[in-house]
Every structure is written in C-alpha cells, then in structure tokens.
Write a structure and sequence with these properties.
The complex is a heterodimer of chains A (175) and B (215). Chain A is mainly α and 175 residues long. Helices cover 80% and strands 0% of the residues of chain A. In chain B, helix 4 runs parallel beside helix 6, helix 4 packs across helix 8 and helix 5 runs parallel beside helix 7. Classes of the chains: A mainly alpha (175), B mainly alpha (215).
C-alpha cells in the first residue's frame, strides 16, 4: 500500500484482505462466545503460529496451498458454529487458532521491498492480526445480554453465507 | 423539549450569533450553493470498495427484494420472540445455498416468479398475523430465500471483488430484515398493530404486481 508506510500498511493488511479478515473476525467471535478460558487457551498458539507463518513468508517459504479457499472454509465452519452457538472444546479451539494464525501469516508475504521494509511490514501485519483477533474476541465476550448474543449469531450466519458464496465461485466448474 | 446544560447554551448562542450576523441574501446564497452541491468523490469505488458497494446496493435497488426482506423482519416479529432471531439467522444461510446455485450456473426455474411470490406470501402472512409453528415458518422463508439467493448469486461472478460483493449484499439483506423488525416494534400499541398489518398488505399487493409482471 503506497503512501502510508510499510509498518502501518502491515497493520491494515489483515483488515483489508477480506479472505483474512473474515476467518479472523468470525473465529474471534467464536472465542468470545465461548468465554475467557477459551481465549486464554487460544491466544498463545495463535500469536506464535502467526509469527512463524510471517517468518516463513518473509523468507519466501510459501508452499503451494490454496490459502484463500482453506481460510474461507474455516470462516464458513466457524460462522456455522457461531450461528448455532456451538464450538469445539478449548484444546481444539487452540489448534484451530494455530492453524488460522499460520495460514494468515504464510499468506501475508510481501514482494519488492528491502529487508528493513519487509521486516516492518511483517511486524505490522503480526500486530494488526493479533489486535484484530483480541479486540473482536473481547467485544464478543462482553456481549452478555440476550440481544447481543443474538447479534453475534446473526453475524455468524452472515459470515457463513458470504464464505459459501465465494467458495462456490472458486470451485465452480469452468464453462 | 427545553435544552439545558452548557452544550445547549453554547449551541443556542452560536445559532443566535449566526442568525444576527448573516443577512437574508447570504442565507439564500448558501441555500442555492447547497442545492447545487454534489457528493465529494475523494475515493473512487474500485476493488474492495466497489465490490462491497455494488453488493450492498444490489438488494436495495430491487423493490421485490426490499419488500420481501422487510416482510421477513415483520413476520419474524409477528411470530414472536424466538422467531425474531431465527428467521434472520436461517435466511442468509439458505440464501447462500441459492446463491451457490446461481454462482455455479445451475438454473432455477422461475426465479422472478419465486421472488414475486415471496413478497405476496410473506406480506399476506404479516397482514393475517399468521402464527404457524416456527419450523413451518422457517421452511416457507427458507424456500423463498433460495430464489433471492439465486438472483444475487448470478451477479457474483461479475463483481470486482466477489467476497466484498457477497459481504455487501448479505449485510444489506440483514439490514432490511432489521428494518422490518424495527417497524414491527410499533405493534406494542394498538394503532401500531394496524400499521404493521397495513405494511403487510402493501407488501402483498406489491408482490401481486411483481407476479403479474413476471408472467
């Protein structure tokens, strides 16, 4: 992103890449819905895996994985869970957190920058993706009133709907 | 209502000073300038913004979609407490299924008829204050959601940013449901109940017109 600097561009990156923002937001909603214990279990693996993924991306180690498809699949499943107000056990959530962190990190590589700029962009991305997850999960955890819980479930169903449509587009047979 | 507090006094003072210092001609000139003003286009709607905007506007620009979505919200409120949230949760999920059919090019017969029928049937349900069991209501709404989803889904492959388009139209659909739910809050009062049912009648009539046009 030109004009705003690599570090700030990195912070905004997870917000502006919708295939990253969608799974992160809906997974954070699931964590918040589940409660403080799930958040405490899931943050450390997420933060570490995100850093590992970004390091791999920084060294241009990027396996040929369909990142967007996998992340949207996560978004769809997490959205269904949020809509149904059902979530896996805390340990499973921690594993999912690590997966999402790793995938988002590995898919956030930058090109055409020198070493210092690359480091700034990746550091910004790590900070942005970490803050996004924590802030959304924190807000969702605070939503305790009945209508607030309903609003979370509706957002979950919206997310699933968006993810299903784009997955259908990505997997549609070419005519 | 009487304004009190420092903000009230401050705003009144500013308003008075503006009033006494501006001549009638100045006010007229300002009014004319405002009338001729256009929106500032500092950022062109391209990429994510363009995709989101076109997706958001898609349900809003079709009267048939608007009428049916508002009717879903109204009916949800007529049905009672749990339906208020079950219908807005079920609708997008089933709509996505219809949308996936549209995206993958699987044809659905008489999509326009289905959309027109949705306004007619859902509007009639509100008019009659029909309260079937919740699962029947969910099935009725779900069937119509497939038609609406299909119509949106066929547009998706042409969008600048398909993901932003899908988020935009799902959000707009949800907000239209919310409009219906908010209107239905009027039914706390006796006169409000008449207004809500009249809203259902208008939607049903609009649905009948859409249906005539669809044939």
């Amino acid at each position: 992103m030109t004009g705003i600097g690599e570090f700030y561009g990195g912070i905004l990156h997870p917000l502006l890449v919708l295939s990253h923002a969608l799974p992160l937001v809906v997974f954070a909603l699931m964590l918040g819905q589940r409660g403080m214990r799930a958040m405490r279990f899931s943050y450390p693996p997420y933060i570490l895996a995100l850093a590992a993924g970004l390091l791999l991306a920084g060294f241009e180690v990027q396996p040929a994985l369909p990142f967007q498809e996998i992340l949207l699949l996560f978004a769809m499943l997490c959205g269904l869970g949020v809509a149904a107000q059902r979530s896996p056990p805390e340990r499973a959530l921690a594993v999912i957190a690590a997966f999402i962190g790793l995938l988002v990190g590995m898919d956030s590589g930058v090109t055409g920058l020198d070493r210092r700029e690359t480091f700034a962009a990746l550091l910004g991305c790590w900070l942005g993706a970490t803050l996004l997850l924590m802030m959304v999960a924190g807000v969702a955890e605070m939503a305790q009133q009945a209508w607030q819980r309903v609003a979370l479930r509706i957002i979950g169903s919206w997310t699933t709907a968006s993810a299903v449509l784009v997955l259908a587009l990505l997997f549609r047979p070419l005519s | 209502m009487q304004e009190t507090g420092c903000w009230g006094i401050l705003s009144s003072t500013i308003a008075y000073k503006v009033y006494v210092t501006m001549s009638a001609h100045t006010i007229l000139l300002f009014t004319l300038l405002l009338a001729g003003a256009t929106g500032a286009n500092a950022h062109e709607a391209e990429g994510i913004a363009g995709g989101f905007t076109s997706g958001f506007m898609h349900p809003l620009l079709g009267w048939d979609h608007v009428a049916a979505m508002v009717a879903v919200g109204l009916w949800g409120a007529v049905l009672g407490r749990s339906a208020i949230w079950i219908l807005p949760v079920v609708f997008p999920l089933v709509m996505a299924f219809g949308g996936a059919l549209g995206v993958t090019g699987i044809p659905l017969p008489s999509v326009e008829v289905g959309i027109a029928m949705s306004a007619l049937v859902l509007g009639s349900m509100v008019l009659l204050a029909a309260r079937p069991p919740l699962w029947i209501a969910a099935i009725i709404v779900g069937v119509f959601a497939i038609f609406h989803g299909h119509a949106h889904g066929t547009e998706l492959p042409h969008a600048v940013s398909p993901l932003a388009f899908s988020i935009g139209f799902v959000l707009a659909t949800g907000l239209l449901h919310l409009c219906g739910i908010l209107i239905s809050f009027l039914s706390r009062w006796r006169a409000g109940q008449v207004v809500v049912r009249a809203g259902g009648a208008i939607i049903a009539m609009a649905g009948a017109i859409f249906l005539l046009r669809a044939f």
